[in-house]
Design brief:
Elements: H1 9-14, H2 21-38, E1 45-53, E2 59-61, E3 67-75, E4 78-79, E5 86-89, E6 92-95, E7 106-114, H3 121-140, E8 147-151, E9 156-159, H4 174-184, E10 190-193
Helix pairs in contact: 2-3
Length: 194
C-alpha cells in the first residue's frame, strides 16, 4: 500500500518554491527516505507487527510512536482480551501474564493504530528541504554529493570525510537518522501497514 507523502506541493509553495514535476517526484522520494530513517509511517495508520516476548517481563515495547490504539493481540496463537489480558499504557503493552519465558522466545502479533493525525511541522520542513535539494540536484545534472567545497583559483576540491559521505542529495546524515528513529520508535521485526 502506498502511503501519502509527508509534505505536498502546497508546502513547497508556502516556502517560495514553484513546484514542478521534478518536485512532485522528489516529494515522494524524500517522504520515503524520512519514513525509512524513522522506521515508522509517521502518519496515522493501522499496522500488524510481529514481536517476540523474550523474557518474563510483563511489558512489551511497541514500535511506531505514538501508539494510539491496539485492536488485537495474539500471544503464542491465543487471542488475548483487552483490559483483562493486556492494556495499552503510554505506547507499551502491559500483560496480565509475562510476554515470554526465560527458555525460548514467544511470538506476539499486535494489530495497532499508530502515528500522528497530521505530519508534525518539523517533519514537513525536513521533507521540503530534502525535496528542494533533490530537485536542484536533478535540474543541475549529475554531480558528486560528497563535494562540500570547490575553489576555482588554484583549483581545489574538498570532499566529505568517509563517515559523512553520502550517495544522494536526499540522503540523511547519521545523526538525523538516529533522531528520527528515537522520535518515532521504529524497530519491529515485521510490519505490514493497512
Amino acid at each position: 500500500m502506498a502511503l501519502p507523502n509527508l509534505a505536498v506541493t502546497g508546502d513547497l509553495s508556502a516556502r517560495g518554491i514553484t513546484p514542478t514535476a521534478v518536485h512532485t517526484t522528489m516529494l515522494a522520494v524524500a517522504s520515503s527516505v524520512v519514513r525509512s530513517a524513522a522506521g515508522s509511517p509517521i502518519l496515522a495508520t493501522t499496522s500488524v507487527v510481529t514481536l517476540w516476548g523474550l523474557d518474563s517481563s510483563r511489558w512489551l515495547d511497541l514500535p511506531g510512536k505514538p501508539v494510539t490504539a491496539v485492536a488485537t493481540v495474539v500471544h503464542d496463537g491465543t487471542t488475548l482480551v483487552a483490559n483483562d489480558d493486556y492494556k495499552l499504557v503510554d505506547g507499551r503493552l502491559w500483560g496480565a501474564s509475562p510476554w515470554g519465558d526465560d527458555c525460548e522466545p514467544v511470538k506476539v502479533v499486535v494489530t495497532m493504530t499508530h502515528g500522528f493525525a497530521a505530519v508534525p511541522a518539523h517533519i514537513v520542513q525536513l521533507v521540503c528541504d530534502l525535496t528542494i535539494a533533490g530537485a536542484n540536484a536533478a535540474v543541475d545534472g549529475a554531480h558528486n554529493p560528497n563535494v562540500i567545497a570547490e575553489r576555482i583559483d588554484d583549483y581545489a576540491v574538498t570532499f566529505a570525510p568517509g563517515a559523512e559521505a553520502v550517495a544522494s542529495a536526499v540522503e540523511l546524515p547519521p545523526l538525523t537518522k538516529t533522531w528520527l528513529r528515537a522520535q518515532f520508535g521504529g524497530g519491529a521485526g515485521m510490519v505490514s501497514h493497512r
